[in-house]
Amino acid sequence: MKRIVVLISGSGSNLQAIIDACQLGRLKAEIVAVLSNKADAFGLQRAQKAGIAAESLAIGDYADREAFDHALQQKIDSHQPDLVVLAGYMRILSGPFVTHYRGRLINIHPSLLPKYPGLHTHRRALENGDSEHGASVHFVTEQLDGGPVILQASIPILPNDTEQDLAKRLLSKEHLIYPRVIQWWVEGRLELREDRAWLDGQPLGASGAD
Ligand code: GAR
């Protein structure tokens, strides 16, 4: 069974979707630990409820980003994961950390990348008058939210939609695509090669798999 460590910062609804997929047997992997940079992240409680080791590291205990990420890396590696999954982990990762997990570090981002890397993606989609919005699962590389896209899901933007409306509707899509991509990785169907995502031996385009 492949071993997964999940990093979170908040509610952990994507974590919950991954836990549920494991429990239902749709995802054939074991979540061996959930780690957070926030002690009060609700996702830690979700992990504990599911009997998964859950722990937080306090940024204030470390001199700088590199020191924090190094400690985080050591903590992660103590669980000997095959794959590291970012699920609402809201800190920029340092270069050595990203390099260490190259090809086995994935993220979900609430926009149709390459549109709207960074924060406030729902607000930016509304402000730009976009007709659709979405989420992207991608391999993590040193470029912030810039790694190769594996799979996207989109939703229409309806008249009078608020940021909260978009966030809520999009999360339900995120909960479908993230466990699916993780299962692809677990089955050995997915890899990061030559800065591209490959599925079943085929390179994926800029918007990932269909
Ligand atoms: C999700 O919408 C995820 O895409 C986003 O944070 C939310 C976490 O929700 N991630 C990022 O913005 C990363 N840049 P959750 O804690 O309920 O899974």
From TrEMBL:
Q: Looking at its record, which EC class is this enzyme? A: transferase
Q: Which NCBIfam families match?
A: PurN (TIGR00639)
Q: Does the keyword Transferase apply?
A: yes
Q: Which organism encodes this protein?
A: Rosenbergiella gaditana
Which InterPro entries does the record cross-reference, listed alphabetically? Formyl_transf_N (IPR002376), Formyl_transf_N_sf (IPR036477), GART (IPR004607), GART_AS (IPR001555)
Give every Formyl transferase N-terminal domain span.
2-182
Q: What keywords were assigned to this record? A: Purine biosynthesis, Transferase
Catalytic activity from the UniProt record: N(1)-(5-phospho-beta-D-ribosyl)glycinamide + (6R)-10-formyltetrahydrofolate = N(2)-formyl-N(1)-(5-phospho-beta-D-ribosyl)glycinamide + (6S)-5,6,7,8-tetrahydrofolate + H(+)
Domain of life of the source: Bacteria
Name assigned to this protein: Phosphoribosylglycinamide formyltransferase
Q: Which residues bind (6R)-10-formyltetrahydrofolate?
A: 65, 90-93, 107
Q: Which GO terms describe its molecular function?
A: phosphoribosylglycinamide formyltransferase activity
Q: What is its EC number?
A: 2.1.2.2
Binding of N(1)-(5-phospho-beta-D-ribosyl)glycinamide: at which residues? Answer: 12-14
| Family membership | Belongs to the GART family.
For the keyword Transport, the answer is no
Explain the purpose of this protein.
Catalyzes the transfer of a formyl group from 10-formyltetrahydrofolate to 5-phospho-ribosyl-glycinamide (GAR), producing 5-phospho-ribosyl-N-formylglycinamide (FGAR) and tetrahydrofolate.
Pathway note? Purine metabolism; IMP biosynthesis via de novo pathway; N(2)-formyl-N(1)-(5-phospho-D-ribosyl)glycinamide from N(1)-(5-phospho-D-ribosyl)glycinamide (10-formyl THF route): step 1/1
Residues at the catalytic site? 109 (proton donor)
Residues flagged as site, Raises pKa of active site His: 145
